Recover the amino acids of this structure.
């Protein structure tokens, strides 16, 4: 069975309904560039390893200048192999295979679980508002830069205060939606999935209450967008429907390039990515000693994951152990 046919079925029937269809299409294209013409029987340890070697010599295609582009990471190649595995499983559900291929993956990368400090968040927001830290001093950028980054202020505040995954936020709508995340400012809720969207066993998207500080920002943004929609109606333009937009246009795909720009202008490490917002929200909730189950519900994590990854940020973390040693020392001193 040709890999081409397996990918074609998955791309046609399954990929359009994934969380990020655009990214899925790009990964499947990369898979076919190397695996096209091969069969499922060709999938084995040596070919999987050869694919990873090949991909890690290729530039990331999202860069406009291939000469300046970074190379595909082993994690990126691993994700593409996982898509091929998912496509194979999907094919097997329709056309039973006599033998399913065994995939070999590179070791998963251990991503940083660092949280942003409040000072770092303030610096990122300042850069998003059109400032650049240079030689230790903040300098204003040109007007076009400030206008081009207006949506990033909303992106950062929503990410840090709601802990919502960065892939969901560009789809967030002002009004109820059947197939996209949306907000209800009157009742103070963010619905991370559409009314007819089923939740997923992993990367759950439960509704969450909007914190008061974020709610004040969102009410102001909604008022701004309403005023802008009046002007757009006069010009015969369609209304703004998404919370995040660039010059009135909905954002397609993920927010990456603009975010890298504000991180650089804020003078922070290039390792910081939008997913750090979620780490930050989880860490701040633990530091505030929010009950574990409530914090997990808010973030869309299991209590076990939250405890395992972020539990050490709780004020009472291992305090009973410390107290036990103190009590023992006191008894011997007496």
């Amino acid at each position: 069975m040709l890999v081409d046919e397996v990918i074609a079925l998955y791309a046609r029937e399954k990929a359009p309904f994934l969380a990020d269809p655009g990214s899925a299409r790009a990964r499947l294209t990369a898979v076919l560039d190397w695996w096209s013409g091969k069969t499922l029987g060709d999938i084995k340890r040596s070919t999987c390893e050869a694919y990873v070697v090949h991909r890690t010599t290729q530039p990331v295609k999202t860069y406009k200048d291939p000469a300046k582009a970074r190379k595909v990471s082993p994690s990126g190649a691993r994700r593409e192999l996982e898509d091929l595995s998912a496509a194979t499983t999907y094919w097997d559900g329709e056309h039973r295979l006599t033998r399913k291929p065994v995939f070999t993956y590179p070791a998963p990368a251990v991503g940083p679980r660092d949280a942003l400090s409040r000072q770092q968040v303030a610096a990122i927001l300042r850069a998003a508002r059109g400032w650049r830290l240079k030689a230790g001093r903040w300098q204003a950028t040109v007007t076009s830069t400030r206008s081009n980054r207006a949506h990033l202020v909303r992106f950062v505040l929503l990410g840090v205060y709601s802990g919502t995954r960065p892939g969901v936020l560009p789809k967030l709508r002002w009004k109820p939606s059947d197939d996209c995340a949306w907000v209800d400012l009157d009742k103070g809720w963010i619905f991370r999935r559409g009314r007819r969207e089923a939740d997923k066993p992993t990367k759950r998207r439960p509704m969450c209450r909007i914190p008061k500080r974020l709610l004040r920002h969102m009410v102001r943004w909604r008022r701004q967008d309403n005023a802008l929609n009046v002007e757009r109606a006069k010009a015969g333009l369609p209304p703004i429907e998404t919370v995040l937009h660039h010059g009135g246009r909905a954002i397609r795909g993920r927010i990456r390039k603009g975010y890298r720009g504000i991180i650089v202008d804020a003078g922070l490490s290039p390792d910081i990515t939008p997913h750090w917002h979620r780490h930050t929200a989880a860490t701040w909730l633990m530091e505030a000693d929010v009950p574990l189950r409530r914090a997990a519900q808010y973030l869309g994590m299991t209590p076990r994951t939250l405890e395992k990854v972020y539990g050490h940020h709780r004020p009472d973390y291992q305090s009973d152990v410390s107290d036990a040693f103190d009590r023992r020392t006191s008894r011997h001193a007496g």
